[in-house]
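Our preliminary data section would be incomplete without showing what the modeling component actually yields. Below, a chain of 338 amino acids is followed by its predicted structure, encoded as tokens that our downstream tools consume directly.
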Amino acid sequence: MKHTVQTKYWHTLPDGRVQCDLCPRYCKLGEGQQGLCFIRACKNGEIVMTSHGRSSGFAVDPIEKKPLNHFLPGSSVFSFGTAGCNLMCSFCQNWHMSKSRHMDKLASVASPQDIALVAKKKKCASVAFTYNDPVIFMEYAIDTAKECHKLGVKTVAVTAGEICEEPRREFFSYMDAANVDLKAFTEKFYRDNCSGDFQTVLDTLVYIKKETNVWLEITTLLIPGENDSEEEIDKMTKWIVKELGKDVPLHFSAFHPDFKMQDKPRTPTATLMKAREIALKNSIHHVYTGNVSDKASQSTYCHNCHELLIGRDWYALSDFNLKDSCCRFCHAKCPGVF
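Predicted structure:
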């Protein structure tokens, strides 16, 4: 099986190098050089993707682990990723894969058809492109999505949203759901902590919500002293309501010291609860906490009558009071894919 495939989002520069146009990093590469993402490289004067059919591993997860709480709740998802990333987050919680620059991390070999067949065999309702950002292996993800859809298996992108306009349109046309990691709500945070572009992420969120049928949820990892101020959370949640609407579920997750950010403490539960309170006050209908144990803030409630719709304790579901996507008590429609 070939692991190197041609790509189409690049152009040749006057000096003979080639520029990758997949993400706003715009890596400019000479022959044999790799982009910052590690798996896109210059070969024979063009940009190729070098990890097609090669994965850093596979797992069957609950869909709530992505996290997606309004997309086929209670179902299983077949998860996989590759290696590398197009961001440089100092706080990366999955750095063993996303920061890897060694091909031996890509030990598992599976064609797109193999992945779709295994997902179907294991009774997974969807396949998730996760662990590292799927935009950097979009050719592999798209080929896999095509095979999944042939078998009635849906597809999920877990992404930071750092992707340019043209490839963005193609990539999300093959996705059924996405959880976008909104890492903070300042350009400074993205620049200093991620070497990323804040506006591109906002553009991706607006595009998904307004221009596609992809089910969208958002996750923000709250880091003490970095992106957890009440002012920033207030500004972020007001922007979400204004630009995306009240029905996009928002997840606030607890940080733990990892990778290069070892000097920060774990996120206090009180910080998560305060963020959730602010988001609810600003009219976001469904706000959740993650990486902590709190059934009340992880369960889904009707935005109209406030009755419990889906009980959750971590990834275990209990109560389920939806019928045809509607609340059993007041019959208001709950946004999502059920």
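The domain at 54-298 is CATH 3.20.20.70 (TIM Barrel). Residues 184 and 227 are 6 Å apart (CA to CA). Preliminary results of this kind motivate Aim 1 of the renewal.
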